[in-house]
Amino acid sequence: xxxxxxxxxxxxxxxxxxxxxxxxxxxxxxxxxxxxxxxxxxxxxxxxxxxxxxxxxxxxxxxxxxxxxxxxxxxxxxxxxxxxxxxxxxxxxxxxxxxxxxxxxxxxxxxxxxxxxxxxxxxxxxxxxxxxxxxxxxxxxxxxxxxxxxxxxxxxxxxxxxxxxxxxxxxxxxxxxxxxxxxxxxxxxxxxxxxxxxxxxxxxxxxxxxxxxxxxxxxxxxxxxxxxxxxxxxxxxxxxxxxxxxxxxxxxxxxxxxxxxxxxxxxxxxxxxxxxxxxxxxxxxxxxxxxxxxxxxxxxxxxxxxxxxxxxxxxxxxxxxxxxxxxxxxxx
Length: 332
Fold this sequence. Notes:
By secondary structure, the protein is α/β, with parallel strands linked by helices. The protein contains 12 helices and 11 strands.
């Protein structure tokens, strides 16, 4: 009996060891089939561009296809739910941005059919997109932030600012700036054609000021049709050393860096998340990946670890709770 018991115990240990070895082997081999990355916008936008660049580099390093699927609609909710409804095995991911993955969970939580904090986990931030607070030069003489505030106070209801839609982050940014600067009476002008539409409104003189990402404003700044008066960035930009940061002009908590980040279902096994984090960070650091991203004006900004990514996202959501509590904007 003792011998039989010893044999059974030995076989049990062998089986457990084999299972552990098999599990470890499976994790080391991840992925073993194509990975789907859901994007909450149509093709051609910044989030789609970033996703395709990163996906291609991950394909090359991991030897499996990374298929990008565009799922626009409903503040990013369509894409979020596509991801969270999938099996949490690392084969369905999402690349979203500040609007879809920090603002949406705050302003329309009831429209989400999932518990965002419980069901979604960040893998890593990918890139940051700094923004300028820019003013028009067409019949508008303002040259700095104090001058902008003085103009708004002297001309209540006459300063018009551009946004890409109600409750978009450029809308919140300017509304929050107006509140922090002394409850300025300013008027939003929404243009759903995106940054290009706002820029056109500024060039024609219909709009005097806006928060716009740095890359989209480059040509008009060079042409003298737009003037940057502050930058939403931790430090001044090398190409614009004379433009102060929002913190330097007294509004360090105002303005949005429009990041892109990779997300996964929260129940995804930690070893798989670790593998995805390593591969995504490596994709950002390859020569081809880095060149393609910086050429677009993006700043490569990966999270140091999964835990660092969680802390970063929690801070982003906390910041947006503060902003949306301070300024009330009706969503469309």
